[in-house]
Amino acid sequence: MCGRFAITTPPDAVRAYFGYKEQPNFPPRYNIAPTQPIPIVRMNALTREFALVRWGLVPPWMKEISPSKPMINARAETLLEKPSFKRAAARRRCLVPIDGYYEWKRTRGETPKPYFIQKKDGGLLALAGIWEHWQGADGSEIESAALITTAANESLSPIHHRMPAILDKAAQARWLNLTDVSAEDACEFLQPADENLLIAHRVSPAVNKVANDDAPLLESVAEDVGELNKVARDDDSQLSLF
Question: Which candidate, 85, 52, 62, places its Cα nearest to that of 135?
Answer without folding.
Answer: 62
